[in-house]
Each structure stands twice: as structure tokens, then as C-alpha cells.
Amino acid sequence: MKTVAEIKLTLDYLYGFNIMTRSRKRKYAYARKSFAVLASNYGHTNEAITASYKALTHDVIIYSHKTMNNINKIDMIHYNRCIDRLNLRLKKIPSLNSLQDNPVADDIHELLKTLGRKDLAYFKAKVFEPFMDKLEFEKSINQM
Questions:
Q1: Residue 135 pLDDT more than 90?
Q2: What is the dihedral of CA 100, 101, 105, 106, to 10 degrees?
Q3: How would residue 59 be classed by pLDDT, with cut points 50, 70 and 90?
Q4: Is residue 98 a contact partner of residue 68, using CB atoms and an 8 Å limit?
Q5: Cβ distance 56 to 11 under 8 Å?
Q6: CATH class of the region 4-85
Q7: Where are the domains of the chain?
Q8: Which residue has the higher pLDDT, 54 or 29?
């Protein structure tokens, strides 16, 4: 199992700076977010991560998981490259717009699962299909 330090050093190398630099600039904050999610997804406990790096508290790690879909493309690339470089058995982030592990899509899916067949048919015909038509229309206007 790769240590927390190995993951951090790999991300330092990929980013080209010390990701634990005490700064609120986006590039440092998003790098720390990627590290926190990567280390905890790999199996390290929040306690192990916070013991190694005081800049990351338990609530920061939880917040990082909840907001991982709000990262820049470069952070996604570094996250995926770190998985490759360390041969971690983790799923890569396929794209920033992916529905996989997207909290909004998960919430909507959970709500839809509570509907009955008639309600779902009504939702599809009266809400979802008109919404998709409107979305297509707006996209066609934006492409002009």
C-alpha cells in the first residue's frame, strides 16, 4: 500500500510545487483537495491524513469529497496521472462533466427511484422531454 507521503510527493512532482504550501490560492487549494480525495479513496483514514499534514483537517477532507466535481481540468489530469504513476487501483475521473460520482446526478437519481411508473411516465412526458427540447433549442441558438 502506498503511503500518504508517497501520494503527496507524486502530486508535488506532477504539480511542480509543494501542495501543502499554506496559501488560499486556487491552485494550492485544488491540489490539496485532489490529494485529500486521492489519499482517502485509496484507503487512508482521515486521521492518518490529518496526522501527516496539519493543513488538512477532518472537515477539509470531507468538504473536499463533496466538492471534488468543482476542480479545474489540470487537477483532474494530475489526479488521474497520480493513479497511473503509483499504479493505484482507483477509478479515474473520466471528465469534469461526468455523471459518475456526481452528487447532483446522484440526488436526482435517488429522487427518481422513489417515483412510481405512472409518475415517471408523467415526469418524462411533461417535464423531462420539454426540458430536453428547450435545452437543444438553446444549444442551437448558442452555436449560431
A1: no
A2: 120
A3: very high
A4: no
A5: no
A6: mainly alpha
A7: 4-85, 103-142
A8: 29
